[in-house]
Specification:
4 helices, 74% helix, 0% strand, globular
Amino acid sequence: MEKLKERWGIKSNLQIILIMCAFAVNGSLAVKLADPVTNFFGLYRGVTNPFIYWPFRILLIFPIYQFTLVFVGACFGQYRFFWNMEKKMLKRIGFKRFFKED
């Protein structure tokens, strides 16, 4: 736990618990939100070819997860942690120019 706290720059075990809960809730939320979006595109689990449905759904869950992560983190009182994590991720995938250097 101490290594995790040091790596993430947090101070208490309660923060770790809140962060883990936020990750769990956000993962479930992203999967739930992917259902209506896939249906909107006319892709239904029992009807669409699985080789089309599942890659599309997985590729769809990733941006939904990223978009909702900061919001769910804020609901758990960990906005700063999740916003810093999101900025780091966005910089890694090529959006460096949108963030000033720290």
